[in-house]
Each structure stands twice: as structure tokens, then as C-alpha cells.
Amino acid sequence: MDKIRGNFYKYIGIVIDYVLEFFITVFSLLVEVFRSFRSLLISLLFFGGCLFFFILWIPLSFGSRDGIPWFWIVLFVLVFPVAGSFAITRLKYLQYMATEYFYERADYYLLGKNVTYDTMGDYGRRYARKIEEERKRQAEERQRLEEEMFRRQFEAFFNDARFGGYNQGGYRQGGYDYGSAGYGNTTFDGGFKEKYETAARRLGVSTDADKYEIRLAYKKLAKKYHPDLNLGEDTTRLFQEINAANEFLSDENIARYKQMYGQG
């Protein structure tokens, strides 16, 4: 009976996860499309000035009489990126809340693990707390990285002035060359970028995925390939790879990748 209940909660969670992921993907695509149209309209207005304003105003004022509501179309193009982004945030909130609720109950009946909360709303409140904690952590991390970068640049500039223009790229007359010292676009990360992208591919997420998308992907794959739930085939090695990828995509490495390569 416990196995039946566990599989029931598991498959309910999977269905909800895929359905909400579908809507998140659709809304994300639409937001990008309408954001591009909005940028085009703003650019035309900026470069065209008053001439474009009057050209645009004519169809906006009289086009609806011919059955084409131009005013509402333009308004929708301008507003949808903001409304769509809000909808994506709420869908991710629902996805986390529902999947955590059903997956934990599946673990309770199938694997004997404890349930963290009693109601789905408790998972939602935990998600809100984690979002706020993540926002504060990222702000502190950005400030720390900026202070560290400023300190290194100051020390390098001081040494450059002190030793007459010699830097890691060689001797140069004049001021300090940040690119030669490793502060430009070229980054030597010891293979970090390749390892990060390999781990992201292992979990089936993009490199700009946030920690919650990564965690959901990990939980989905861990349940799918857990050795205890796949008695007919050996999934131990694959399960270990999934765990290793999840461990590598830690909060620290996510922040480091986004800082180094401008993702997110």
C-alpha cells in the first residue's frame, strides 16, 4: 500500500512539474519576443523623434475604426514583458511549492524519509524565504567581488607605477594594462567553465538556470534513476553522476559562473 501511495504522489508531482515547466517555457519565449518588439518601438521612437510619433499616432487614433485596434496592440506589446515576467515568477513559485509537496510525500512512502511540512503553503513560504535569502546573498557576493576586484586592480596599478610599467603581459610604456594582467575579457579559470557546463548538461538545465531550477531538475533525475527504484537495471553509475553534477552546481559556483561569464 505504501508503494502505491508513493508512486501516486510521485507521478502527480511529475505531471505538475512538466505542465508548469511547459507554461514557464511558453511565457519565457513570449516575453523575449514581446521584449524585442518593445525595444524596436522604443528605438524607432528615439531615433525617429516627433516624425515617428505622428506617423504612429495616426493608426493609433483611427485604425480601430477599420477593425484593427492598434492602440491596444501597442499597449499590449509594451505591457506584456512586465506582466509575463511576473507570471513566470508566480509559475516558478507554484512549481517549487507543488513538486516539493508531492515529491517529499513520495520519498516518505517509497524511501522512508521524513516529511518537512504538513501543508503546501508551508513549502511556498519556504520558497519565499529562500528567494529573499538568495537575493541578499547575491548582493553580498557582488559587493565582495567588487571590493576584491578593486583591491587587486589598485595593487596592480600601484605595482605598475612603482616598477615603471612592468606587468604580467610584459613591459609597456605608459599606464597599466588591465587586459594583460588578467582583468580583461580573457579569463583563465582552470577548466571551471567546461566543468560547470558539463554539470549543467548532466542535469538537463541551461547554464543560466537558477538554484531552484537546478534543484528541481536534480530531484526529478534522482527519482528517475535512483537504484532502489530501478531494480531491473543498474543505474548506480548514472545516479552517482547526477549527484556529482548537483554537488558541483553549488550556490558558490553558480554565483562564480554568473560573475565570470555574465549569465543570468
TrEMBL record:
Signal peptide: none annotated. SMART domains: DnaJ. The chain crosses the membrane at residues 12-33, 40-58, 70-88. It comes from the Bacteria. Keywords: DNA replication, Membrane, Transmembrane, Transmembrane helix. InterPro entries: DjlA_DnaK_co-chaperone, DnaJ_domain, J_dom_sf. Residues 198-264 form the J domain. GO terms for biological process: DNA replication. This is Chaperone protein DnaJ. The lineage of its organism: Bacteria, Bacillati, Bacillota, Tissierellia, Tissierellales.
